[in-house]
Amino acid sequence: MSVRRAFAAGARDLVPALLSLFPIAVILAITAVDVGLSPLQALWMSVGIYTGLAQAAMLSLVDARASAVVIVVAGVLINLRLLLYSASIAPYLDRLSLAERVPFAYLNIDTVYALSIATFEADGTDEKAAYYLGAGVASWVVWQAGTLVGLFFGDVVPSGLDLQFAIPLLFIALLVPVLKDRPSVGAGVAAGGVAVLAAGLPFNLGLIVGTTVGIAAGVTGERWWSA
Amino acid sequence: MSTAFTSETVWVIVTVVAVVSLAFRLSFFLLFERREEIPPWAERVLRYVAPAVLAALVVPKVLYVGGSVSLVNPRLAAGLVAAVVAWRTENLAITVAVGMVVFWGSRAVL
After folding, report:
1. Helix (H) and strand (E) counts for chain A?
2. What is the rounded average pLDDT for all residues in chain A?
3. What span, in angstroms and rounded, lies between the C-alpha atoms of A24 and A55?
4. Which of residues 16-45 of B touch A (CB under 8 A)?
5. What CA–CA distance (Å, rounded) separates A99 from A101?
6. pLDDT band at residue A11 using 50, 70 and 90 as cut-offs
7. Which of residues 98-127 of A touch B (CB under 8 A)?
């Protein structure tokens, strides 16, 4: 398989995910402006942070008047999974030069990672770097396009629609598949429960506390249920 | 509407998370010959970040309406339907679309 074919294959295999990425980026951009970010700030979020989940959570917290520290911590916590992705996929791309590694690493998002790792592990391509790059570039272009569309046409959307509620719905859509074993369900239940109980804490600490308790519950549950 | 922050603060917040995220992304790419892996304890912790943080974000959002818990509210209705749709279709766009429709519909009714 040639490099160009592999690149195209990466992009093409991602098409179903791209169809979801686009509207999400649009909604996030509209929400960002709704919440008070300037279009340039919204664009920087989309390019710099470049993960829907972190962007969505942070916007949600900005709207809730959370403190800056909590927003940063939430963004960092949510993007910790990028560490896991890096550990998992970097070994497959070890023939890249140092200069190449930076853009390759930057392009990594959930859908790019999931597709690439599945393909690599099933030996689905001879040109791993090209395949990954195809998926990565396609995602990046679609995401930024969605952001730009949201920024340009956001004004057209009537505000009574409360489009911001799409974000918690997105979270639900992402949460359900992740509740795939008992410790994970335990983590979710604990986190949700504590977050509700701690909702009165200042600086939106309820989120951090809930998350921490949830993680602890998950780790404990894993040992408990597999003992 | 405007944020509770100055414009500079917003830039800083986004930039900090962007830089840290890039660092996370790059982390294992910068370990050249050593195929080091994440220690098992760290991997275990990371595994539960997703369900925990997502649940901590969602549950208060669907239960609270204007400062107090409300069990009969459009968000909860939409959230529950969305959860079922997510389970069945495993499709982000459909889940969000159906959820929004239920949200708008139940707002008119409840």
Report:
1. 12, 0
2. 89
3. 11
4. 16-18, 20-22, 24-32, 35-38, 43-45
5. 6
6. very high
7. 98, 101-102, 104-106, 108
Of A115-119, A130-134, B98-102, which range is least confident? A115-119
> What is the model's pTM?
0.81
The closest CB to that of A49, out of B1, B18, B26, belongs to B18
The Cβ of residue A130 has, within 10 Å, a number of other Cβ atoms equal to: 20
Give the integer Cα–Cα distance in Å for A50 and A52.
Answer: 7
CB B1 within 8 A of CB A31: no
Do the Cβ atoms of A187 and A215 come closer than 8 Å? yes
B80 sits in which H/E element: helix B74-89
Least CB-CB distance to B60: which of A102, A195, A214? A195
Query: Residue B68 in 3-state DSSP?
Result: strand
In angstroms, rounded to a whole number, what is the distance separating the alpha carbons of residues A83 and A118? 18
